[in-house]
Each structure stands twice: as C-alpha cells, then as structure tokens.
Design brief:
The chain is α/β, with parallel strands linked by helices and 331 residues long. It has eleven helices and 16 strands. Helices cover 33% and strands 27% of the residues. Strands 1, 2, 3, 4, 5 and 11 form a six-stranded mixed β-sheet that branches. It has a five-stranded parallel β-sheet with strand order 8-7-6-9-10, with helices on both faces. Strand 9, helix 5 and strand 10 form a beta-alpha-beta unit. The longest helix has 16 residues.
Length: 331
C-alpha cells in the first residue's frame, strides 16, 4: 500500500490512511478517500463501512479509539502549493515569502504584463488567463493554499466559486468588509452554503495591523503557516520513500504515539530492507538500535513500547522523560 500512498501524494499532495491495531481485523489497512475507506481486501468492506464516517473526520496523525477498536490514522502531506490569484502589489511579497516557506508558487492574472518573471522572480509558474477559466489551467490539488487578491469582487467571485468546488487546505480572500460581503452574497445566491463560505478566510490574514504590502503579505503568510501547522501530520521522509519505491519488501517502523519528551514525533518512520539496511529515523540512539535489533522477529501489526523516562531512558542510553509506541509493518 505504501507505493500507492506515494503515488497519490505525487498527484494530490495529501493522503489519509487508517490501520486497525486490535481485534479480529488487526493489521487491516485502508485508504480514506472522499469519505470512503478503500481496502485491497473486499471481505473487509462491511467492517470499514461502520467506521468510515468517523475516520473521515480525523484531521491528524494519531491513534483513535472507536468503541472496542483502535485505529492508527495517518495524514500524509507533501509538496504544498501556494496559488495566488492576482498579480498586484500584495502578491509580489506573498510569492516571495511563500517560496521561502517551501511552497511551490503559482501566480495567475488576467493581465499579461502583471505576470512576468521580472515581477515574480520567485514564482515557479506564471499563468495569464481569465479567472473564469482557472480550472482549465490549474488542476485540482488537495494540499493547496489559495490566496485571492484580484483587483475587484468580480475576479474574487470567479476564483472563489471554482475553488469551493475542489479540495483545498486553505482559501483566503483579501478585501474590505464591504467587498467581502458583496462576494459572499453573490456566492450565496448561486447556491453555495454558509458552511462552504465560512471556510474562506476573509478578510485574509492574521490581524497584526499591517498596512504596507509587505506587512499584509506577512499577515497572510502567518495565517497560512498557522493553518498548515494546525494538525499533527506525517511528513514524508524522502529516504524512506525512495527505499520503499526501489525495494521489493522490508519492514516499516512507525512511531504511533508519544508522551513526554522524545526525539521524534508521531508518524516518524524508519524502513529496513531485506538486507538489513535502514532508511529514515525514529529518533536515533539506543531506541532505534533496539527497534532495528527486534525487527527481524516482529510480526505484522505488532506494537512495542519504549520507555524514555529517567529510569527507562537511562537503560536505553537516553534521558528524554517520555515514552513512544512503535508499530511494525511487514511490506
């Protein structure tokens, strides 16, 4: 399933999975897509159907308890995209800061002279075209952060109505209260729900009192960072991904929970290939050594606990004052 996960990540930038940790269906795993659980085992369809609505609501990587069944839910994210509509004076510093923050940056405007490499030297993609046609030029992408800073409410509406029909992580729209109100009323009249419109950050940005374009850009970027880090997710380790793609089989070791202080967070992974080579890390030190040592004996879906408190940590050569649970998956 990991190869499938990495394939979807390349296409959408975000994937959600769930694995059963106990009970009759222990070690079963599914992809959660469009609020449905997709498993390679058709015999488990009825089991997953009971839980898919609640699993679809989960927004972060963690162990979830549902009645007598425990699940490890993982949200994977990769390659965040920042898409800016409008090439005006605020867009320029937003694009620059976005690139500094590691986003793939796209800028679109319906005026050709506003989307040039001279104005946006940091942008990865510049698009000239009508906002009404943005869906033809910008494919849907789940790990996307949209910033609407066009020159008027008509452009804002054209962008918002198309983005609201696709998945996104963040949607913000600049403008005065009156401009935002006009756009909101227009979209409500077109059939969009209050819930959909409430997902728009408008007016855009954190209220830090900025007035200059660069200050407004900082407030927009700060809100994007706040939203990006709102939930704990599993960031992709490139070494682990490359190894899984190239190797036929191996053992994936994942931290599924932690308490107190520990070197790595929930979702951290280490992959061991059939020759015993390891890729990635679950924290280094003796904890990692013990996990590597035990891996050849591990059963698929097995969970082991490592205590990093003063006493347990001393025995492992670490004093972190915490505890981690590690999941073994045989690939």
């Amino acid at each position: 399933m990991y190869r499938k996960i990495y394939q979807i990540l390349e296409e959408t930038g975000k994937v959600k999975t769930a694995m059963v940790l106990n009970g009759n269906h222990k070690s079963e795993k599914c992809l959660i897509k469009e609020n449905h659980c997709l498993s390679s085992d058709e015999n488990t369809a009825d089991f997953w159907k009971k839980y898919e609505a609640d699993l679809a609501e989960c927004q972060e990587t963690k162990v979830v308890h549902m009645g007598d069944v425990d699940f490890f839910v993982e949200i994977y994210v990769k390659n965040p995209q920042l898409i800016i509509f409008g090439g005006g004076h605020v867009s320029q510093p937003v694009a620059k800061i976005g690139k500094m923050l590691g986003f793939h940056v796209t800028v679109m405007d319906d005026r050709e002279d506003f989307v040039t490499s001279e104005r946006f030297p940091d942008a990865d993609r510049l698009i000239k075209g009508s906002y009404d046609k943005l869906s033809d030029k910008i494919p849907a992408y789940e790990n996307a952060y949209y910033v609407i800073v066009t020159r008027g409410h008509l452009g804002d509406s054209a962008c918002a109505r198309q983005i609201l029909r696709r998945p996104y992580t963040y949607l913000g729209m600049i403008g005065s209260k009156n401009k935002v109100k006009l756009t909101r009323e227009k979209l409500l009249g077109e059939g969009f729900s209050e819930e959909q419109l409430n997902s728009i950050h408008a007016p855009i940005g954190l209220p830090i009192g900025g007035h200059m374009p660069a200050e407004i850009a900082v407030s927009i970027a700060a809100e994007i960072v706040q939203e990006k880090n709102r939930y704990d997710v599993s960031y992709i380790d490139g070494a682990v991904e490359d190894a899984v793609r190239k190797k036929e089989n191996g053992i994936m070791i994942t931290i599924i929970s932690k308490s107190g202080s520990s070197p790595r967070g929930t979702g951290s992974k280490m992959f061991i290939d059939k020759d015993g080579n390891s890729y990635g890390s679950i924290g280094g030190g003796n904890v990692e050594f013990q996990a590597l040592k035990y891996a050849p004996e591990a059963q698929h879906g097995e969970i082991r606990k490592y205590n990093l408190s003063n006493q347990g940590g001393a025995n492992l050569g670490m004093i972190c004052g915490g505890e981690v649970e590690v999941l073994y998956e045989l690939l």
